[in-house]
Amino acid sequence: MVTFEDKATSILNVFEDCTRDQQNEVLQRLLLKCKPLQLRVLYNELKPLLAVDFAATLPPELTERIFSFLTSEDLCHVACCSKVWRDRANNDMIWLHLCKLQNWQHYGTITDLSSERPFSPNQTNLATSLSSPTFSFDSVVSSTGLQETCKWKQTYMRAHHLDKNWETGRYRVAPLLRGHKEQVTCIDCDDTLLVSGSSDTTVRIWNVFTGECIHKLEEHTDSVTCLKMKKNLLVTGCADSIVRVFDAKTARCRNALHGHTSGVDCICFDGRTIISASSDHSLRVWTLPEGVCRQILRGHTDDIQFVITFNHLAASAAWDNTVKLWDTTKGLCLHTLQGHTEVVYCCQFDNSIVVSGGGDETLRIWDTATGMCKQTLYGHKGEVYCLQYNSEIIASGASDSTVIIWNHRGECLNIMQEHIGVVRCLCLHGNKLITGGDRKKIVVWNAKNGNLLNVVHRNPSLLHVMWVSDTRLITASPESPGVITILSYW
Hints:
Layout: H1 4-17, H2 20-33, H3 36-50, H4 54-57, H5 60-67, H6 72-79, H7 83-89, H8 92-101, H9 141-144, H10 151-168, E1 172-173, E2 177-178, E3 184-189, E4 193-198, E5 203-207, E6 213-217, E7 224-230, E8 233-238, E9 243-247, E10 253-257, E11 264-269, E12 273-278, E13 282-287, E14 292-298, E15 304-310, E16 313-318, E17 322-327, E18 332-338, E19 344-349, E20 353-358, E21 362-367, E22 373-378, E23 384-389, E24 393-398, E25 402-407, E26 412-417, E27 423-429, E28 432-437, E29 442-446, E30 452-456, E31 465-468, E32 472-476, E33 483-488
Antiparallel strand pairs: 1-33, 2-33, 3-4, 4-5, 5-6, 7-8, 8-9, 9-10, 11-12, 12-13, 13-14, 15-16, 16-17, 17-18, 19-20, 20-21, 21-22, 23-24, 24-25, 25-26, 27-28, 28-29, 29-30, 31-32, 32-33
């Protein structure tokens, strides 16, 4: 009796003996004899056989173009498919594009997160969650023969981890920096050295990583009111009316700049030019290394509250309810911005606009070129103490405990309520907005939609000044004796 196996073998042998055209004819006839369910079985068998690995077949440029439409999550799934797909997805141009979408490209150019140092191991590290903020790159490339992970993919991975640390509240708290006998009035940092000035007439220079006080500067004869550090040069302003310049590495006083007749309240410094504002109602422009006063800017009729610079221009906000825009090279007052009915506490400007906030509960947007007020922003119900803007939004904090996000047309986008008491300081940093206020509270917000991301609960003291970098948050308390807190998100 002829079995099925014998019949199948005979048919296959006859099929193999046919020419290519004859085989095609036989297949067509067989398909016409098949039932729908049989055709479905046939289709399922043929589908994987007919699949084409386009990543292995197409030129790399076309594959790169196709993969450029994928998200970072999609690309990670792609990399798990095969060695070829991983190699095609491991492309610097693709990952650089994704970094640009998140405004993270500076992590691969200006700031190198791969060389970012964590706290010293001998410090006590605390975190708000069980997860450590430290990034660990567990590479399996060396043992598998795969291509090394490309630079911009590594950059994206580190930046994503850092962003999640800020969003979820993963950070470490360094031991408090103690040493000042009275309140800390001002701080500045270059991510390696931290400098602090105090009402106890001293300036201290700290190692950010170890918390060690490296130098104590005792040349001042009154409260240190302001300071700035740039390129290892430290400039301080003091209530004794003297501006001093120190070498931050050696603590040697290079210059003592005399000229103001009252205490120095504000300092701006770009590495060569110093702009100082004093209770004598004047600003002075000094140049280094000569230490010569090039310009004296007079015009305010009351104390100057705030000074900020942009290129060769400076803006000063004062208790005479005005903001003055100065050309620091020519010593000219370009515009006097009048409109606020109370003291102007804060401002920021560029070539296009000046934004100011004052004790009259309003913000104003001015035209830099003409000095005309373009918009008055109403929304706060208390004095506006701090503001900052970027290309998309304006953020402001006030004594009414609120933070408001505005667009550049002056429209209120979000009113954020989480603080208790005055919002003292804020910082727009990428897609994040960090705000600090009374009751020890620091809040991290999504700057785009105003959503609350995280409240820093471990800040151990009140705060009135704040410094923010990509990986650190440093605050100083208004209490006596003054203490400084360093939070590391890396």
